[in-house]
Amino acid sequence: MENQNQEQNQNQNEITNQHNDQTENISKISQSTTNVLISSILRKHGVTKDKLKPISEEQKAELRNMVENLKQQLTELQKQASQTYTENSQSSSKDKSPKINRRRRRL
Question: pTM, whole model, 2 decimals?
Fold first, then answer.
């Protein structure tokens, strides 16, 4: 019984580590995709560093607030996705053994 619990804990830790790696990869992909899209849009409209006009401190503050809000929303979304993934992986690992037992009984 203890060995079984240890195996389950080890499996859960492996799943969690894999999920963390996937989340990090998704974050990197999202960042690079965003950078490419923004660069493309700026290039399309002929925006270069030379042509930029200075912006007011008020506009800078608004942009900073917007970025912070987006970061918070993204963090919350990642937490929700992580919880859903963890719950699904836990429930699927619990569901697997009863299905196997049912199949054995039918045979």
Answer: 0.46
